[in-house]
What does this fold into?
Amino acid sequence: QVQLVESGGGLVQAGGSLRLACTTSGSIFSAHTMGWYRQAPGKQRELVATITISGGSTNYADSVKGRFTISRDNAKNTVYLQMNSLKPEDTAVYYCLRSEFSGRNYWGQGTQVTVSA
It folds into this structure.
């Protein structure tokens, strides 16, 4: 059973930074893509950023381009999300996603990010 463990969430003032980490059990190389999604209260879950495990190609939501950076450390089976210049509208629960070559998806339990004005 694949497990995803997220860490790094918390409370930060607007303009501040946080780094989220998602560590997956098992080999990261059986995953095609990993990424981060977020869900604010009363809103649908939305894409934040994804990265392919083999080539490292990245994709970002327009709302976070230039502020967030996704990266991976394959040796540590970990994907990171560096979040800079945070805004109150970035407040949400952030979820890690692992997408397998088989098409199966796994989600983490979520980590709360709160940005105060």
